[in-house]
Amino acid sequence: MTVISISLPDESVAALEKIREHLELSGRSEAVRASVKIAEAEIKDMERMDGDVEGVLIIVHSTHHDQWIGMLQHRYESIIKTQLHSHLQNRKCLEVMIISSGSDVFERMMKEIYGVGKADYVKFVRSR
């Protein structure tokens, strides 16, 4: 097994502890391994998407003063059929978007969302 060293902000350490406790794991290393498996499953779900994709995209982000989400919505306006913006507690914002797209464009959009690193929560619920 390879040993790696990482630096995490306090809020990520707290999240890791919460994962460890919730999954009843014995240590942080196990929590990191479980988190990697969960993220890997999400990636596999994305890779299995082909053809047309429809569903609801939910994003929670920290502030509406940062314009990244607005720029993203303009860039992908052709695949966003409906969108809702709402202010939450602690100056967070909720974005709900109805998406209808080819899988290639949708995958590009999701990579951009994750790549920017400003979303606190991202979930896509695909219609079947």
Structure description:
- With 128 residues, the chain is of the alpha+beta class.
- It has 4 helices and 4 strands.
- Helix 1 packs across helix 2 (28-48).
- Strands 2-3-1-4 form a 4-stranded antiparallel β-sheet, covered by helices on one side.
- It folds into 2 domains: 10-46; 51-126, ACT-like. Chain A, domain 2 (Alpha-Beta Plaits), CATH 3.30.70.1150.
- It is 44% helix and 28% strand.
- The model has no long low-confidence stretch (mean pLDDT 91).
- A hairpin with a 5-residue loop joins strand 2 and strand 3.
CATH class of the largest domain: Alpha Beta
| Total strands | 4
Shape: globular
CATH fold naming of the largest domain: Alpha-Beta Plaits
Quick overview:
With 128 residues, the chain is α+β, with helices and mostly antiparallel strands. The chain has four helices and four strands; from the N terminus they run ααβαββαβ.
